[in-house]
Amino acid sequence: MPTFASALILFLSVMPALAKVLFFLALVLSFTGLLSPPVALTIGILFGLCFVHPYALAARTSARVLLQICVVALGFGMNLHEVLKAGRSGFVYTALGISFALLAGLALGKLLRVRGNSSFLITAGTAICGGSAIAAVGPILHADDEEMSVSLGTVFILNSVALLIFPPIGGVLHLSQSQFGLWAALAIHDTSSVVGAAAKYGPQALVIGTTVKLARALWIVPLALATAAIKRSKSKIQFPWFILFFCLAAIFNTYFPAISPFSHSLFALGRLGLTATLFLIGTGISRATLKEVGWRPLLQGVFLWAIVAVASLYFIRIGLIAL
Fold first, then answer.
1. What residue segments make up the domains of the chain, in order of their start?
2. How many helices (H) and strands (E) does the chain have?
3. pTM of this prediction?
4. Could you tell me if 181 and 198 are in contact, meaning their C-beta atoms sit under 8 angstroms apart?
5. What is the pLDDT of residues 237-256, one digit of tens each?
6. Mean of pLDDT over the chain
7. pLDDT digits (tens, 9 = 90+) for 105-132
8. Contact indicator for 151, 118 with CB cutoff of 8 Å
9. CA-to-CA distance for 151 and 235, rounded, in angstroms?
10. Which residues, 6 or more positions from 166, have their beta carbon under 8 angstroms from its beta carbon?
11. DSSP state of 190
12. CA-CA distance, 269 to 316, in Å (whole number)?
């Protein structure tokens, strides 16, 4: 028994150091291009479930900043005319989809008796842009830490599942790249997973998925303004400026062919950075997160996400939603 106790104490004492070493090794590996986005996300989730995160706050902040930088870098690999075409159509589809998701989400929240602001935050995150929408609307609602954690946890869990299962489903259903990019943009919560899933499916899916998703993300601003007006809140509303820089990058790539080698390099770096971003996001899902979410918010998130995903897929398959 003393031997076992000593071994256990020794193991527990080296766990923090081991977690730091494994975290940095996996992060570096995710930047090399040897890992696909779903694999990087899966490794991140396994790390989060097995270890106490040594850099939880820094990883969360880095993931948000790195995602925005990578989205801008991806703009250097896209043609402005394709971006505008997808953006125009996508803006209409996202407006209709967001309206439907908001109504369905609030109804589900009331039906499942989800407490406090969590129901609206989960609905906003599913309807628009995952964690970004929750982060924008939360302060306006004066949501407390528990409500924010529950909502973010619910959305991040489902967002991770979506990245892993959408590409195989698209393959089984023989979706074209255009169809898959549109479906991913309308049905997956966060920009990171939309881009990751679309990139795995193909280059055309990546262009459409990224552009339509960014058009969807722009609805953060009107939703925040409407929420602030209803709640009579004076909280500051942040505009997602990285979307504007993404468009500027596409302009440079389209009209300045002389910088083509530079553009290709930035686009490649953007894809590698996105993989690292997904690893960082995955590490934020821990056993504490799963426990904290609870079954009612998670059930609301699952049902709402399933409704949005199935409905958008159905309308895409019958040709009612198309680019």
1. 15-317
2. 15, 0
3. 0.81
4. yes
5. 677 778 888 888 888 888 88
6. 84
7. 989 989 988 877 888 999 998 888 877 8
8. yes
9. 19
10. 180, 183, 184, 187, 188, 197
11. S
12. 32
